[in-house]
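Shipment paperwork, digital attachment
Item: protein structure file
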Amino acid sequence: MSVAESVPDALEGGHNLVCLGATQTGKTSFSRELHATTPRVSIWLNERGKHRVPNVDGTVARDLDDVRAAFANDDLRVEYLPADRNEAIVELQDWLWSVADRADRQLPMQVVVDEVDRVAPQSGKAYGNLPPRDAVRDFTSEGVKRNVKFVGITQDPTTYDKKALRQSRYRAIWQMSAEQRKAVSDYGFDFRKVDDAPAYAGILHHMSGQVLGPVKAEERYA
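Attachment content:
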């Protein structure tokens, strides 16, 4: 299958992206840059305390009312720091659907979630079993047609919900352990190119398995 797409088109477009790789490989820095530079309104669903990703661009929001206020003020970047991410992502998904509908699905939006496996752990169970995981599944399966792009980041693809992972048209792959490579062996990733990539660079793949090219954050986002 031939995919006539460039890396910029893939990153700026409306289809979902998942970033997979071991810790300290460059995937979060790349995602920070993507959040800061996308032409979309972008919300980074961050964590409070020691797990907070630092240096995320945007207006800080601590609850959904703050997110609503940021949208009302035309803020294009929001760092959302709720008390409980698992509860917040359910509310956020529902609210963004209403925003999309009011805007006739013409408002391009993006949601970024680091350590997304903590929100949407691997499970083969049906909808209604785990609301935050179901919200992520909704983002990845229903968001694109509402002009809402979902970017999930995880250092352990073995624990991220595979239904959500499969709904990501683009997969950016960094270095990972042999065990993790085995777990994603059916996805057609070209680990030779991953191994040959410069330090802190990942390799962007289309869901077909085709390699689109390297991706790496500018140094100021590291």
